[in-house]
Specification:
Layout lengths: L2 H6 L25 E8 L7 H18 L20 E9 L8 H13 L5 E7 L6 H8 L3 E7 L3 H13 L7 E3 L1
């Protein structure tokens, strides 16, 4: 049954079981150490929001302990597999407009908390509109220990640049994931 039928056939008393993708989003099951670079164009950044939220929760909990305050969020964290001392997620959001910048505040605030407390497990970069932006700088800073590159919905010209950078910095194709 499609949604058009639901809207036009007046099935007010019908119970439907909806199954779909749900869970923890992008998880780092095998990559618990090293640097992962995520590059997302437009709304594709939504694929990384769960991971960014997890990192923020972890950093707030850790900041609370440092400040001797009770900032604990979700004490029984199920995703405590990351080695936060040796793990870093670098997220690059490429957006056509501010309206398209999904999760902007979350990513910016996570970056701010991470830098303020010098945790080093998250970094956020973004380009909005036609601003000049160079991926080379980020690759140059992190290529020495990139364990995975995750690319979501990138236009051809950006994909070509990424391909050239993976060759230049010797990032194995098996470590590049396209979503």
């Amino acid at each position: 049954m499609n949604t058009d039928c639901l809207l036009t056939d007046g099935l007010n008393d019908t119970n439907l079981l909806v199954k779909g993708p749900y869970g923890l989003g992008v998880t780092m099951e095998r990559q618990t150490k090293g640097i992962i670079i995520g590059i997302a164009y437009g709304v594709a950044i939504g694929l990384f929001i769960d991971l960014v939220t997890y990192i923020l929760r972890h950093n707030i909990n850790k900041a609370g302990k440092l400040l001797k305050k009770n900032y604990t969020i979700f004490k029984n964290e199920k995703l405590n597999k990351l080695d936060h001392a040796n793990f870093k997620f670098v997220l690059i959001g490429l957006h056509e407009s501010e309206e398209e910048a999904i999760g902007h505040d979350l990513c910016v605030e996570t970056d701010k908390v991470t830098k303020e407390f010098m945790f080093g497990n998250f970094e956020y970069h973004e380009k909005i509109g036609d601003d000049c932006y160079k991926l080379e700088e980020i690759f140059e800073d992190h290529a020495h220990s990139v364990i995975q590159l995750v690319i979501c919905a990138t236009p051809k010209e950006i994909a070509d640049t990424i391909q050239q950078l993976t060759l230049r910095y010797k990032i194995k194709q098996s470590d590049v994931m396209y979503l």
